[in-house]
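Researcher: Going back to the complex we discussed earlier. I've cleaned up the inputs and rechecked each line, so this should be the final set. Can you rerun the prediction on the complete assembly and write out the structure?
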Amino acid sequence: MSTITLPRPDDWHLHLRDGAMLEGVAPETARDFARAIIMPNLVPPVVRGDDAAAYRERILKALPEGSDFEPLMTLYLTEKTDPQDVAQAAASGLVKAVKLYPAGATTNSDSGVRDFDKVRGVLETMAEIGLPLCVHGEVTRPEVDIFDREAVFIETVLDPIRRKTPGLRVVMEHITTKDGVDYVAAQGDDMGGTITTHHLIINRNHILVGGIKPHYYCLPVAKRETHRLALVEAATSGGNTHFFLGTDSAPHVDAAKETACGCAGCFTATHTMPLLAHVFEAEGALDKLEGFASRNGPAFYRLPVNEGTLTLEKTDQPNTWPAKIETGAGPVTLFDPGFPVHWHVKR
Ligand code: NCD
Ligand code: ZN
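Model: Rerun complete. Updated structure for the full complex:
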């Protein structure tokens, strides 16, 4: 039996939703993770500091008794966002990042940004105070092929924004391409990149070959195998500390996934750490899991590494999970890696 012990990991990109869904999924993340950056794409979105404070209270209420899980709140950037409100929410310690959704890019992104000149003031304030901008890095122009949207975003949106706003600290979230890997790796320490669990495991064939698999559909959509290999290399090589874990665990009830126009999102909160141990071990890189899941994220966000630990052990018996978890909002199917996983979190 092999075991590995890490400082307790964090999830730097997580959807917890609200109401009955929040109650159903919050314990799944709180079991293994100490903290998570909480996405603000609720309906209506978490726009102002007051909204984030109220949402944070609802999250804390949804946690199992005795849990010390800490939600790290974000604000949803709109063209009307007030720089003063952002600065206050950051100064109070409540808000740890602002999230940029290009309008129309993904689930509940309609209130996102169309005209980047309208958010110039907010971005400049954020650069001054060192508050990170989390970016959903896809353009939404209909003429751009969905598999090219990340690469086009880097060239036409991300890099120009960063050049115009020196000092702005940016996380390119859920990168899915070699282009994203290469861009993030080449920048200075004001640039981070998160990688999801599922993008380390699936490529676009998993979604489309042998019948359409709605539970593998997420945004940004998984790309071809060469891109997956670039993500695995970035996460497991340990050569560049800009890369860290953001699961993008994005629960939708089965009825919203298994339908003619299904929602985007993979649910990985429950079993991410065993899945990652499998992926890192396969690369001979178990010793690099600690950087990816526990150290590089806090370093970017200028937060301490967690004091507690999490131990993973490998056994002959494969791990098992329920196919779905039942929430008050309905059943949510877990991401299926498609191979047996022998790693378990020691409880
Ligand atoms: C996310 C969601 O469902 O909110 N979906 C997804 O496929 N990742 C939104 C997002 O992060 O793009
Ligand atoms: Zn997301």
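Model: Worth noting: The chain is about 35% helix and 15% strand.
Researcher: Good, that matches what I expected from the previous run.
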